[in-house]
Amino acid sequence: MDDTHLAEKITLFRQYGIGLSEENAVLLQKFADMMIAESKIQNITAVTDPDAIWTRHFLDSACLSSYLPSEQSKIIDIGTGGGIPGIPLAILKRGSAHTVLLDSELRKIEFCARAAKTLGLSAEARCARAEELAQDPIYRGTFDIAVSRAMTNGAILCEMAIPFLKVGGKLLAMKGKNYSEETEGFGKAAKKLGAHIAEVVRYEIEGEEKHLIIVQKDCETPAQYPRRFAKIKRSPL
């Protein structure tokens, strides 16, 4: 992608109130190229058009950046898959955040690790199940922000994500146009885990409606959570 196209992407981000430096635009384009190449080998993304990757993946991810702490912070991307939204956020927050990219599929995590190294990011790619890793004292209660993009329903996501957070930390859950609290169950689950829904933000990316559910942790999560996944799935909070 030449300088003109990069300038167009910088302008696109600016239209949404997001600052994007030329250096970070170059890194995002490198990541797009890696995603397209890897998608010929494994299912990293169904979106392989370069412009669509910028809007549907990168711009959407970048909309979370204003909700991240400005100071040094720790972020965990739960169910990162091919690195969305974690890697774009790590690019945008270079120097002020350390990101853990978490997924249970080894090949996807291996791709994320290669991408993070190639792009020079402060990011750890970890292959594990969220409900198991959240019981590890190295990770439990240590993150400022947990992010996840359309991984599972709200009640299940809360149980897997909130234990990772510090008190005062936030879960940023990305949902589509059909978000409904009645079917997602964020509020009820969050309360049992020591948290509450702080805000539900409706926004649009190039005419497509999105929702961002922000859950804030108020106190320590009871030790019995998260449960085993079979129980989480069978009996959501």
Describe the structure.
The chain has 237 residues and is of the alpha/beta class. The chain has a domain at 70-234: Rossmann fold, CATH 3.40.50. Helices cover 39% and strands 24% of the residues. It has ten helices and seven strands. The protein has a seven-stranded mixed beta sheet with strand order 3-2-1-4-5-7-6, with helices on both faces. A hairpin with a 2-residue loop joins strand 6 and strand 7. Helix 2 crosses helix 3 and helix 3 crosses helix 4. The longest helix is centred in the N-terminal third of the chain and has 17 residues, at 22-38. The protein is globular. The model has no long low-confidence stretch (mean pLDDT 94).
In short:
The protein is built from ten helices and seven strands.
SSE layout and pairings?
Blueprint: H1 3-15, H2 22-38, H3 50-62, E1 73-78, H4 86-92, E2 97-103, H5 106-119, E3 123-127, H6 130-133, E4 143-149, H7 154-161, E5 165-175, H8 181-184, H9 186-192, E6 195-205, E7 208-217, H10 229-234
Parallel strand pairs: 1-2, 1-4, 2-3, 4-5
Antiparallel strand pairs: 5-7, 6-7
Helix pairs in contact: 1-2, 2-3, 2-4, 3-4, 7-9
